[in-house]
Amino acid sequence: MNNIIYVIGGSDSRNRLRSFDSFDPSTNKWKTLPPLDVGRSDGAALAYRNRIWIFGGFDGNRTLSRVEAYDPLTNTWTDMPSMIEPRSGHCAVLFNGKMFIIGGFQHGRSTNTVEYYDNGIWKSAPPMSAPRSNFDAVVVDECIYVIGGHVSEESIGHCEKFDGEIWTPIHYLTKPIAAGAAMFIEKPPHVAKLLGRLS
């Protein structure tokens, strides 16, 4: 957000961290910002409506439903409405103008539940067909895609997509993967013209 990289919370192998830092590529410098109220790892974060939001996570003793939002203009964190369910190892995406929180680990197991934030209220969305935590999620062509993950102490290759109404299974990964990383890079409009000139 605002051409700044933000790093929120995490773990130093001994403690769950409250730390919050930013990196400005233009100056090549890190800056320490006001800490979270609660240290946490395995949370999920989004930039939404000029704030940095962090959802859930694990504080070392319990899974959290707590949500905090940082306002760069006031340089402060504010408690926001808590999620319906506590989650860690979940994913957060912006979809159809709303923040969707998907899956994760809760109550000792992975979950398939999904919720979204709508005008200050958390609402339930249709659940995934399979529970998963420590997975990947991306938005492509007006659908949320969830990829792999972890369930029942095993990695899975199951993938599915959500079009705003229903979840539909898609082709499995070539092998089970959990705690990986996924991204979507949209082809810029000028690439086709460039390739045409080179052919």
UniProtKB/TrEMBL annotation:
Q: Which UniProt keywords apply?
A: Kelch repeat, Repeat
Q: Which InterPro entries match?
A: Kelch-typ_b-propeller (IPR015915), Kelch_1 (IPR006652)
> What's a Pfam family this protein contains?
Kelch_KLHDC2_KLHL20_DRC7
Q: Does the keyword GTP-binding apply?
A: no
Name of the protein in its database record: Uncharacterized protein
Q: Which organism is it from?
A: Panagrolaimus superbus
